[in-house]
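Q: Given only this backbone (152 positions), what sequence would you predict?
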């Protein structure tokens, strides 16, 4: 395993839309391992393949000892809204208040190509939605910042 370089803004790869993963092989498994190691090294909770310069539809997440690998994820249900602060490994030092769905259901594939369905809520849903945005070339700076009451 190895720590990959996380690319940062204004790298144009971060604004690209990914392509679906079609080959589920040892090379993909190695990429997943490397992405988990990279995420841990940078103390993140989620990492999308475009953040390491790979334009494939793949995200890894590790939050509260729960590990997720989502390949070709598709959001099929959202409900509720909440605002919370987000950061991004590709935009060091920036934190923004972003509105996201509170509850989600996502269809995806695991690392060997088996279909999976993930139901999440709260902060885990937020992480998943943030990472899926990366697969669409969307950064938190593209989202409308929600200012707290009393802010001007």
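A: Predicted residues:
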């Amino acid at each position: 395993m190895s720590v990959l370089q996380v690319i940062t803004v204004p790298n144009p790869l971060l604004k690209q839309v990914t392509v679906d993963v079609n080959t589920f092989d040892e090379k993909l498994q190695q990429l997943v391992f490397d992405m988990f190691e990279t995420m841990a090294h940078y103390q993140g909770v989620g990492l999308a393949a475009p953040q390491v310069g790979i334009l494939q539809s793949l995200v890894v997440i590790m939050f509260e000892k729960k590990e997720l690998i989502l390949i070709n994820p598709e959001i099929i249900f959202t409900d509720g809204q909440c605002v919370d602060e987000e950061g991004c490994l590709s935009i060091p030092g920036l934190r923004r208040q972003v509105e996201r769905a509170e509850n989600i259901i996502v269809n995806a594939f695991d690392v060997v190509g088996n279909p999976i369905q993930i139901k999440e809520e709260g902060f885990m849903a937020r992480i998943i939605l943030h990472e899926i945005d990366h697969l669409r070339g969307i950064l938190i700076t593209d989202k409308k910042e929600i200012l707290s009451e009393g802010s001007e």
